[in-house]
Amino acid sequence: MRLFILTETDFIHPSDIVYQKVLDIIEVGTTSAHLHFYIVGNQVPLAHQDLYTTYGNVTILKKHQAEKLIGEVTNAIVIHFGSELKGSYQFPHYFIPLSSPYLKQNIAWVTKWRQQRTFKKFIKKAVATFAINDWSTDSLHNEYPALEQKIQEAWLPVSLLPKLEWVDLSETRSELTQGNNYFLSFTPIDHLIDTLKEFSQFKKWQQTTMALVFIVDNNKQLEEAEQILKGYKFKDDILLKTLPDLKMEWLAASYAILLDGINFDKTSIIEWAVHYDIPLLINQNPSQPTSWMKAGEVFLFSEKQALFNHFKLYYKDEMYRQARAKMGKEWFVELTEHRSSNHFIKIPIDLKS
């Protein structure tokens, strides 16, 4: 069976999430000797190409090469995360949404409307749209109730995350914050000032080199954040980065991670963080399923001094920080065992042509 996996999509950032999911699919598929994977993309990083081709049943193709090949074969399946391959619709397609246009902020309404229309088209045309955890299942069912029957929960384990040694993490901190420890924060732009105020209190309480790295959604938000930082007393300890540039190493090298205003598009980031024993501070969120509550410490960031008290607690009590990281790790093991024991469709071994 020829299985074409399309790596290009406008629906999810960072692209490393897509490339890691592709690796997860390949790893699960090694148990099926009849599968051959064609990884399709014009900009697949060399590091990921090297990882994929360590498996003997993987071929990397540019998009035009894949379009030519799929027109010549008689037996194929297409897996995608929100894209198309010309000439492939005679074969079954399976759509794996890792985000949704509904979750995108600060983009032009015309762009958002077009993306929503395209996203809905992908759900309709796919044999099945796979939600790979219960958070994405709930969100997609709420967004597309008329298409609920097309959305199925599936099982794709997280596998083969890079092993990062102490020297790797040290190099990451050197590149980001001149070697200083840092909190990594996924914060909506309209919550940025409040978070900065809480961080200011923490810096005043303890003269420390601790830094705060904000991950904003796009370049427009980056410009807004730069304006907010003008005149900020501790701006030398603040770093701004955009979500498309996010690297797995930034998560693994952080002291703790703040997750504010998140939805299912950040579930891969949560899984990666707990894998690397990084504790999570999560703003209380009505969209977060009960099954994800133990991934980190959940509280209301908007309560006065709540973030300040947590900055202080995590900084002064290393045993507490490690205990919270352990809690996340135990949660992930429990969630994985639960999902693997259920009769979900397993990607890619249960897919039918």
Description:
The protein has twelve helices and 14 strands. It has 353 residues and is α/β, with parallel strands linked by helices. It has an eight-stranded parallel beta sheet. Strands 10-9-8-11-12-13 form a six-stranded parallel beta sheet, sandwiched between helices.
Secondary-structure topology with pairs:
Blueprint: E1 2-6, H1 15-29, E2 36-40, H2 46-52, E3 58-61, H3 63-70, E4 76-80, E5 93-95, H4 109-125, E6 128-131, H5 134-143, E7 151-155, H6 166-177, E8 182-186, H7 192-205, E9 211-216, H8 219-229, E10 238-242, H9 248-252, E11 256-259, H10 267-275, E12 280-283, E13 297-299, H11 306-316, H12 318-341, E14 345-346
Helix pairs in contact: 7-11
In short:
The chain is an alpha/beta fold and 353 residues long.
Tell me, briefly, the overall form. globular
- The whole-angstrom Rg is 21 Å
> What is the helical fraction, as a range of percent?
40-55%
Helix tally? Answer: 12
Number of strands: 14
Summarize the main sheet: 8 strands, parallel
Distinctive features:
353 residues; alpha/beta; 12 helices
